[in-house]
Amino acid sequence: MNPDFIIYGSGNYNSLGVLHCMASKEIKAFLLLIGSGRNPFKGEVIRFSKFARCLHLVKDEEEGLRWLLSHRRNFPKGTIVYPTSDTAESLLDLHYDELIDHFIFPNAGKAGKVTQLMEKDRQTLDAAQTGIRTLWSIYTTSPEFESAQITYPCMIKPIKSITGSKGDMRVCHTPEELNRAIQSAQSTKDFIVQQYICNESDLLFLGIRFADGTITIPAVIKKPGVSSTGEYTHAIVSTAVKECLPELENVKNYVNTLEFTGPFSIEFGLEKGKNYFFEINLRNDGTSHYPLAAGINIPYIWYLSCKGTLKAEDLSCRDSEYEMIDEIFDIRRVLSHEQTLSQWYRRLFSAGAYRYYVSFDPLPAFMLFPMFLSHIFQKIIRTATGFIKKTS
User: Fold this and answer.
1) Which residue, among 288, 284, 275, 243, has the nearest Cα to 127 in the 3D structure?
2) Residues near 378 by beta carbon (within 8 Å), at least 6 away in sequence
3) pLDDT digit of tens for each residue in the chain (392 aa)?
4) In b/e form, how buried is each residue of 185-199, taking b as 16+ CB within 10 angstroms?
5) What is the pLDDT of residue 368?
6) Are 194 and 169 in contact (CB under 8 A)?
7) Which end of the chain, N or C, is less surrounded by CB atoms within 10 Å?
8) Could you give the C-alpha distances from 34 to 18, 357, 373, in angstroms and in order?
9) Phi and psi (nearest 5°) for 227?
10) Structure pTM?
11) Among the listed residues 169, 235, 171, 177, the one whose alpha carbon sits nearest the alpha carbon of residue 206
12) Which distant-in-sequence residues (6+ apart) come within 8 Å of 57 by Cβ?
């Protein structure tokens, strides 16, 4: 008989983090992986884990769902399916009626509801109605969009995360730039256009809503708001949720109105001491393994709650604050002169969490080392080429 916990998604650091969370509690997981599973340079690093023993590879989430439906008898009733992408979560949600008799997965009680709740316009409206500070927003699907008085700079994001791409997110400084960004987008033309804030940091709160309606939000990931390297490669992991989230009760009220049960993350931008709601992710967040050093294990807590064996002590944690480092790409901060090599070295080895590395399963991180060398080599080549062009 297969394990009673299925990780459903790509073999990237999100799924690897969940695998490590469960392995730390000696819970075996079955991997329903998207992609070939053999190329670490395309985010499929999970195959190098010594805990990746039971798995099945599919080309996309749709094939994964069909496989899940046709092989349900191979798993014990009550098996937990744990999605690590919006697409995987949406497919489980849309096929709620076919799956719910045999599997347990994050849901909102009826087919299609979670998919609706993923829409950014719905999220912003629902958050505002529960007293959470939101950004001024308008939608390209709105009849008033063409005549709207938009203040620049503004931020655009796909309304639906399952059809859009992070690559389509843009900061636009002029109407012409906004129009070009919308027209050139590859994945969608439906965007939310929002007030842009120069946020000092992004605050990502990790939580779970249980089947009885209780909510726990045990950790916050403080990501830098501005970095010359693009996507953040370091963050602060903290249990000081109340201090960072004065709106905690409003947030709990908001999550309760969704009637969603499962792990979630809710993101705010911090500017001049005020939190501004960005979005809520109704699935496991890719940062869920970062608070392990504080005694917080989001996937395992959800697993216990589904099994009906969750105890109060399982929710306890140590008051903690430490740095998380992306051990592969944080070197970019040295190459971009944000810090010295010695500073980077000291921070790397004093960090409390990493994107890929854990002491009990080091191989996935080590297998990414060639990517690290390739990145440095490419940077040196680009710098040398630029210097030659300037001097020629």
Assistant:
1) 275
2) none
3) 689 999 999 999 999 999 999 999 999 999 999 986 555 555 578 989 999 999 999 999 999 999 999 999 999 999 999 999 999 999 999 999 999 999 999 999 999 999 999 998 899 999 999 999 999 988 888 887 877 888 899 988 888 777 666 667 888 999 999 988 888 877 777 888 988 888 889 999 999 999 999 999 999 999 986 544 446 899 999 999 999 999 999 999 999 999 999 999 999 999 999 999 999 999 999 999 999 999 999 999 999 999 999 999 999 999 999 999 999 888 888 888 889 999 999 999 999 999 999 999 999 998 887 766 666 667 667 666 665 665 65
4) beebebbbbbebbeb
5) 84
6) no
7) C
8) 15, 22, 27
9) -150, 140
10) 0.88
11) 235
12) 33, 35, 36, 37
Looking up tokens 């690559």 gives 167
Nearest one of 152, 144, 85, 114 to 260, comparing CA atoms: 114
| 57, β-bridge pairs | 33
Task: Give the C-alpha separation, 75 to 52, whole Å.
Answer: 17
pLDDT of 229 reads 40
Show the 3-state SS of the chain. CCCCEEEEEECCHHHHHHHHHHHCCCCCCEEEEECCCCCHHHCCHHHHCCCCCEEEEECCHHHHHHHHHHCHHHCCCCEEEEECCHHHHHHHHHCHHHHCCCEECCECCCCCHHHHHCCHHHHHHHHHHCCCCECCEEECCCCCCCCCCCCCCEEEEECCCCCCCHHHCEEECCHHHHHHHHHHCCCCCCEEEEECCCCCEEEEEEEEECCCCCEEEEEEEEEECCCCCCCCCEEEEECCHHHHCCCHHHHHHHHHHHCCEEEEEEEEEEECCEEEEEEEECCCCCCCCHHHHHCCCHHHHHHHHHHCCCCHHHHCCCCCEEEEECCCCCCHHHHCCCCCHHHHHHHHHHCCEECCCCCCCCHHHHHCHHHHHHHHHHHHHHHHHHHHHHHC
- Residue 54's φ and ψ, nearest 5 degrees, are -105, 115
Give the pair of three-digit tokens for residue 236: 């602060």
Among residues 338, 331, 344, which one has the least CA distance to residue 376? 331
Q: Alpha-carbon distance 191 to 311, whole Å?
A: 43
Rounded CA Rg of the chain: 21
Residue type, 108: A
Place of tokens 């064996």: 309
